[in-house]
Amino acid sequence: MKTTDHAPLIAIAVMAARADGLVDSAEQRAVDAVVARTDHPDVTGLLQQVTAGQLQVANLASRLSDDEARRAAYESALSVINADGSANPSEQAFLDELRAALGFSEAEVAEATRRAGSIAGAPVAEVLTGKPPDGPVEDFILQQAILTGAIEILPDRLANIAVLPLQLRMVYQIGQRHGQKLDFNQVKDLAATFGLGAAAQSLEGVVMKLIGGLAGGLLGGIVGGATRIATGAIITFSATYALGHVAEQYYAQGRRLSADDLRALFARFQDEAKTIYPRVQKQIHGQASTLNLQSLLQGLSNS
Question: What is the pLDDT of residues 113-153, one digit of tens each?
Fold first, then answer.
């Protein structure tokens, strides 16, 4: 893939995130992962153009140099759209438009579409069957944070779709330790309160943060200046670590913490995770080198 492919690839990923009018944090992380695989062109300018409606799918597709770049664009869009669950009708319409613009038949993208749907759909529906973790909950949370961080650096462009199911299962299993019996929607609502998964956010607001030079949010780790944080593994590691510790405090205190308290705790534990990350970075990369995504997904479904 040529460097000239990077800007249209990122723009397509951002358009995929906006396809249904809302961008949640799982989709934000998926776009971050796309950017992390490029040489980071003028991301702020791209976001402004997408938000202003100045870029069209057909034009972006025509700028891609070859079939490898076109397939990367389609799989990146799949990973973004499926990051927070299976594609809804608006998102599917965007994928159909993109596929046609890229010149692919339905048969040519059928396997990638099937894999993305399988990762996004079946595991999420079935993860809430695991047993409560044995041993100290702090160790369990750290292990889950390392695992999700490792997923982010896998070469498979669809791998990060598995992050949200793992985070939701972790919350569920922590709740089980405290005698809580929650269904999937309750767990997903909690994740949204903590700032993950279903927490919708308009891209226009994110763009304003970027223009203002603030770190955080979509691509903030790349264009945020001196306070930026690394994208990819550290973001997901920190989010999973914070989510687990907030869930533990939430259930330990009888689910009496307010939404504001939860968000404040989440931010505090994210900061703590960033200080821990350098000590576990080698472990994350080691786990990524031996991680089999298919086996992981089967483990989710059978847990």
Answer: 887 776 665 444 444 555 666 789 999 999 999 999 998 88
> In 3-state terms, what secondary structure has residue 278?
helix
Q: Are 169 and 214 in the same domain?
A: yes
Same-domain status, 65 and 99: yes
**pLDDT, tens digit, for every residue of 179-223?**
877 666 666 666 666 555 433 232 333 333 333 332 233 333 333
Q: Which of 75, 94, 122 is the last residue of a domain?
A: 122
Q: How many CB atoms lie within 10 A of CB 300?
A: 20
Q: How far is the first Cα of the chain from the last one, in angstroms, to the nearest whole number? A: 38
Residue 128, C-beta contacts closer than 8 angstroms, at least 6 positions apart: 168, 169, 172, 182, 183, 184, 187
Domain that holds residue 58: 3-122
Distance CA 121, CA 193 (A): 22
pTM: 0.64
Of the residues 122, 140, 158, which one is the last residue of a structural domain?
122
Q: Is 256 exposed, middle or buried (0-12, 13-18, 19+ CB in 10 A)?
A: exposed
For residue 128, give the nearest of 176, 178, 192, 88 by alpha carbon.
Answer: 176
Number of separate domains in the chain: 2
Number of H helices, E strands in the chain: 16, 2
| Dihedral angle sign, alpha carbons of residues 41, 152, 165, 267 | negative
131 and 100 within one domain: no
| Same domain (yes/no): 276, 252 | yes
Residues 83 and 157 in one domain: no
